[in-house]
């Protein structure tokens, strides 16, 4: 049974969409399971949300940061209370396994507690003036109305990464979640309502990138946009924000790599490869989509990885025995299968998987067998482009220097890992990898919220989510000087 929702929250009022158009929210593991129907927001709905955010802004920006952060803490507690219930909904609405659904919500809880504390820090600096009797310091100032556009792969964690710091910073928010996971987003918004967040501080509009996301990016009242999604859409967001001189933080695609050196603990490196490549069915921007293995251990690594992959049960995320769940929708499924064909045509060998699962228990869902390519070379499209599915490939390397060169040969730079016990190889990798997140003897996935998260090159535009840097997305620095000398003092030595 589908749940019907009034999904647009503007200024504390839940309203139906202006156009009357709706869209369906379906279970990726069972397309007959209609989870919910949501109105497709349009430019009028977005404008109403922005208007509400504008009206709420002055009082919210003037609310002390520790008080603003209290609401985030309360939502963290509500997430903790409802974790199991939300995890079950996530496994149904987004499709990931129950274990990973819990982890997604846990990431939201962790970040709520972290950001709630940030409300009492928000550190600036005090510094010395070159003049006597003059005091200098820096303060964070909220940017204004934030437009937050989130993807479906982390339906709670990524909205949390954006909403929590935006609110602690003093921004008011218009939030548009991905059209594949609106119900989880709605549940998160309802938690802020339950926490007593003043009307208009967090506004919520569901719908598609066109027109709703676009309208949010382009609305003159929105001063900053935070977007996580594809490079293709990210470029458009960046261009449009650039023209309008808006702050814009982007977290886009990647082509992550796991490097396995000959001295690595191979069992651990195999587990890391399998977890990094196939968790969330490869639908993480940190997913291990390339595994560069030293020639001396490639044969053994390949054998053990294939043995491990052969044990993976594919099925609905709601089944506790399942390791590889459905991919989000039929469009993504088709895209992933197309990449598998591209890989074959380029001359890579399918060592495992390489096809959809469409019969029996898999008939109603978007399932793809865990796929491992052998003979991947760095120039291939499957080694360069983000696939965002359960597909990885083995690349042979002969040295750590070559591994770093291969790693850096892509346009992206989010997450890279090296398995080695050799301190020189580890530090060469740490220094040489052009990636925003680097692991030694840990997989490419599983970033913790107290660290800055984001990538180099085309993965983003220099911003970092999570960690203390999350506040930089939503605040301006103000340099403040107070002259208490009682005279006109001129800087730079002007007499
Ligand atoms: C993403 O896929 O956009 O490091 C984020 C990880 C998770 C976050 C991934 N903590 O894999």
Keywords:
495 residues; alpha/beta; Aldehyde Dehydrogenase, Chain A, domain 1; Aldehyde Dehydrogenase, Chain A, domain 2; 2 domains; seven-stranded mixed β-sheet; binds 2-aminohexanedioic acid
Distinct small-molecule ligands in the complex: 2-aminohexanedioic acid
* SS content category: alpha/beta
Determine and state the CATH class of the largest domain: Alpha Beta
Can you identify the CATH superfamily of the largest domain? Aldehyde Dehydrogenase, Chain A, domain 1
End-to-end separation in angstroms reads 79 Å
- Major sheet: arrangement of strands: 15-18-19-14-13-20-21
Q: Using the coordinates shown, work out and report the CATH topology of the largest domain.
A: Aldehyde Dehydrogenase, Chain A, domain 1
| Number of distinct helices | 15
The radius of gyration over CA amounts to 24 Å
Q: Specify the overall morphology.
A: globular
What do the pLDDT scores average to?
Answer: 97
Number of strands: 22
Q: Report the CATH architecture of the largest domain.
A: 3-Layer(aba) Sandwich
Characterize the largest beta sheet: strand count, sense, and whether it forms a barrel. Answer: 7 strands, mixed
- The helicity comes to 25-40%
Strand content: 15-25%
């Amino acid at each position: 049974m589908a749940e019907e929702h009034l999904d647009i929250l503007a200024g504390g009022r839940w309203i139906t969409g202006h156009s009357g158009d709706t869209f369906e929210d379906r279970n990726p593991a069972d397309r007959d399971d209609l989870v919910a129907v949501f109105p497709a927001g349009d430019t009028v709905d977005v404008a109403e949300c922005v208007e509400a955010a504008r009206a709420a802004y002055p009082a919210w920006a003037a609310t002390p940061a520790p008080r603003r952060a209290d609401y985030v803490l309360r939502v963290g507690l509500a997430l903790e209370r409802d974790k199991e219930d939300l995890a079950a909904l996530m496994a149904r609405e987004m499709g990931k396994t129950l274990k990973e659904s819990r982890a997604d919500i846990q990431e939201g809880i962790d970040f709520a507690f972290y950001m709630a504390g940030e409300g009492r820090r928000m550190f600036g600096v005090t510094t010395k003036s070159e003049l006597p009797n003059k005091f200098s310091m820096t303060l964070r100032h909220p940017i204004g109305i934030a437009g937050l556009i989130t993807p479906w792969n982390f339906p709670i964690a990524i909205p949390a990464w954006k909403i929590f710091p935006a609110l602690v910073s003093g921004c008011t928010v218009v939030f548009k979640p991905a059209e594949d996971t609106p119900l989880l987003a709605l549940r998160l918004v309802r938690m802020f309502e339950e926490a007593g967040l003043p009307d208009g501080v967090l506004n919520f509009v569901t719908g598609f990138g066109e027109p709703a996301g676009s309208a949010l990016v382009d609305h003159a009242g929105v001063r900053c946009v935070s977007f996580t999604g594809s490079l293709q859409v990210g470029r458009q967001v960046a261009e449009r924000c650039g023209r309008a001189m808006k702050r814009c933080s982007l977290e886009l695609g990647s082509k992550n790599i796991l490097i396995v050196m000959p001295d690595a603990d191979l069992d651990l490196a195999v587990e890391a490869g399998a977890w990094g490549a196939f968790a969330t069915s490869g639908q993480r921007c940190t997913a291990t989509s390339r595994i560069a293995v030293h020639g001396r251990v490639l044969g053994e690594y390949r054998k053990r990885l294939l043995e491990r992959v052969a044990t993976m049960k594919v099925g609905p995320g709601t089944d506790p025995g399942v390791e590889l769940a459905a991919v989000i929708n039929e469009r993504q499924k088709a895209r992933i299968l197309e990449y598998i064909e591209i890989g074959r045509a380029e001359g890579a060998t399918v060592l495992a998987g390489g096809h959809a699962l469409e019969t029996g228990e898999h008939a109603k869902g978007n399932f793809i067998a865990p796929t491992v390519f052998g003979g991947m070379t760095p120039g291939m499209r499957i080694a360069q482009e983000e696939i965002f599915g359960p597909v990885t490939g083995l690349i042979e390397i002969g040295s750590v220097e070559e591994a770093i060169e291969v790693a850096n040969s892509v346009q992206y730079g989010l997450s890279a890992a090296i398995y080695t016990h050799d301190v020189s190889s580890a530090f060469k990798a740490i220094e040489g990898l052009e990636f925003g997140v680097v692991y030694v003897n840990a997989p490419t996935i599983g970033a913790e919220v107290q660290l800055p998260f984001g990538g180099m090159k085309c993965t983003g535009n220099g911003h970092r989510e999570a960690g203390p840097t999350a506040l930089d997305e939503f605040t301006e620095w103000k340099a403040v000087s107070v002259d208490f000398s009682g005279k006109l003092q001129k800087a730079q030595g002007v007499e």
